[in-house]
C-alpha cells in the first residue's frame, strides 16, 4: 500500500499512549459527552452504576471505531501531513494489531452494553460502529464528495444511545439531538477541508473542496448553517429545553451564521493573505458551538431537578 515504505522505515516499539491515540481520544470525548447528555436529560433516571458502565461501553465502542478507521485509512494517513504521525503510518502500531484491537473492543463494548443497559442500546451501538467503519470509512469516504453528509450520522448517534440506555425507547427529543449533530457535521468538516485541501487532494479523498472547489464549498457551508439554525433551536420547544437553552442557542447561531457569511464572501486572495485564518476560526467555533448546546441542555436538566426551569417554550413563542 502507499504507506508501506513509510511504515517500514519508521518501525518503533509501541507505547501505551500509542494505543490510546489509536482509539481517537479527542473524538471519544465528544461521543462520551453527547451520550451522557442524552442519558441525563431523558425522563427516566438511570442508576449511577448502570450509567457509568454504559458510558464506558459507549466510549470503548467509539474507540473501537477509531481503531478500525485508522486501520482502513492507513494508506491515506501516510500521505496527509496532519495524519502522518498517527500510530499506524508512523510504524508504532502494526495494521493487523490495530484491526484485532478494533474488532475485539467492538464486540466487547456491544456485549457489555447489552448486559448493563438493554438490547436496544446494544443494537444501536453495534449499528453505529458498523455505520462509521463500513458505510462511511470503507464505503463513502473515498467515493463521493457527500461523504461527510451521510457519514456524519455515525457521530450523531451518541445522544440517542444515551437516551435509549435510560428509556429503552426512542422519541422526538433524541431524534432532534441526532439531527443537530448530523447537520452540524458538514460545515464543521468542510471548514477544515478548505484549509487542508492540499492534504485531501494529495491523498485522493473526494472532499467537497477537492471535487467542487472552494467557492461551491463556501456556499454549502452557508446553506447548511442556515438549515442548522431551526434544528438547533427546536429542542427549546420540547421537554428537554427551555428559555435558557433557547437564549443560548439563539446567540450561538447568530455568531455561527455571521461566521458562515464571512466565509461565503471571502475571495481566494483573502485566504492566501491570512493563511485561512477565518476558516480556522470558524472550524474552532463549531466545536464550541456544539459543546455549549449540549451543556445548555444539562443546565436545563439541572434547573428542572430543582424546580427552577420554566419548562418547554410554547410552540407559538
**Spatial separation of the terminal alpha carbons:** 58 Å
Number of strands: 0
Written as H for each helix and E for each strand, in order along the chain, the element string is HHHHHHHHHHHHHHHHH
What fraction of the residues are assigned to beta strands by DSSP?
Answer: under 5%
Low-confidence stretches: 1-10
Q: Outline the biggest β-sheet.
A: none
Percent helix among the residues?
over 70%
Mean pLDDT across all amino acids = 91
Tally of individual domains: 2
Number of helices: 17
Radius of gyration: 20 Å
- Classified by CATH, the class of the largest domain is Mainly Alpha
What is the CATH homology-level superfamily of the largest domain?
UbiA prenyltransferase
- CATH fold descriptor of the largest domain: Tetracycline Repressor, domain 2
CATH architectural label of the largest domain: Orthogonal Bundle
Report on this model:
The protein starts with a helix and ends in a 12-residue tail after the last helix. The chain has 2 domains: 1-170, UbiA prenyltransferase (Tetracycline Repressor, domain 2, Orthogonal Bundle); 174-317, no CATH class. With 317 residues, the chain is an all-alpha fold. The radius of gyration is 20 Å and the shape is flat. It is 74% helix and 0% strand. α4 runs antiparallel to α10 and α11 packs antiparallel against α17 (277-305). Residues 1-10 have low confidence and may be disordered. The chain has 17 helices and no strands. It has helices at residues 4-8, 16-22, 25-41, 48-72, 74-77, 95-116, 119-140, 147-151, 153-156, 158-167, 172-195, 197-203, 208-212, 214-233, 243-265, 268-274, 277-305. The longest helix has 29 residues, at 277-305.
Amino acid at each position: 500500500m502507499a504507506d508501506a515504505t513509510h511504515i517500514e522505515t519508521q518501525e518503533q516499539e509501541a507505547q501505551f499512549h500509542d494505543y490510546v491515540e489509536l482509539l481517537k481520544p479527542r473524538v471519544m470525548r465528544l461521543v462520551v459527552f453527547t451520550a451522557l447528555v442524552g442519558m441525563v436529560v431523558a425522563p427516566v433516571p438511570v442508576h449511577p452504576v448502570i450509567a457509568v458502565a454504559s458510558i464506558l461501553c459507549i466510549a470503548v465502542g467509539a474507540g473501537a471505531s477509531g481503531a478500525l478507521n485508522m486501520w482502513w485509512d492507513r494508506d491515506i494517513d501516510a500521505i496527509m501531513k496532519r495524519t502522518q504521525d498517527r500510530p499506524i503510518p508512523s510504524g508504532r502500531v502494526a495494521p493487523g494489531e490495530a484491526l484485532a484491537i478494533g474488532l475485539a473492543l467492538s464486540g466487547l463494548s456491544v456485549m457489555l452494553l447489552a448486559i448493563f443497559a438493554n438490547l436496544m442500546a446494544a443494537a444501536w451501538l453495534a449499528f453505529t460502529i458498523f455505520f462509521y467503519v463500513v458505510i462511511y470509512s470503507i464505503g463513502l469516504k473515498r467515493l463521493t464528495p457527500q461523504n461527510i453528509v451521510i457519514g456524519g450520522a455515525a457521530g450523531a448517534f451518541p445522544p440517542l444511545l444515551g437516551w435509549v440506555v435510560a428509556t429503552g425507547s426512542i422519541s422526538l427529543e433524541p431524534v432532534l439531538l441526532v439531527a443537530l449533530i448530523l447537520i452540524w457535521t458538514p460545515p464543521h468538516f468542510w471548514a477544515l477541508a478548505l484549509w487542508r485541501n492540499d492534504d485531501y487532494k494529495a491523498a485522493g479523498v473526494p472532499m467537497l473542496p477537492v471535487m467542487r472547489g472552494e467557492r461551491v464549498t463556501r456556499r454549502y457551508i452557508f446553506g447548511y448553517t442556515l438549515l442548522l439554525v431551526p434544528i438547533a433551536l427546536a429542542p427549546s420547544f420540547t421537554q428537554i429545553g427551555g428559555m435558557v437553552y433557547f437564549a443560548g442557542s439563539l446567540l450561538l447561531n447568530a455568531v455561527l451564521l455571521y461566521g458562515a457569511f464571512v466565509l461565503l464572501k471571502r475571495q481566494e486572495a483573502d485566504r492566501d493573505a491570512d493563511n485561512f485564518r477565518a476558516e480556522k476560526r470558524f472550524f474552532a467555533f463549531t466545536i464550541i458551538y456544539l459543546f455549549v448546546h449540549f451543556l445548555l441542555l444539562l443546565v436545563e436538566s439541572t434547573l428542572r431537578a430543582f424546580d427552577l426551569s420554566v419548562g418547554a417554550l410554547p410552540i407559538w413563542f
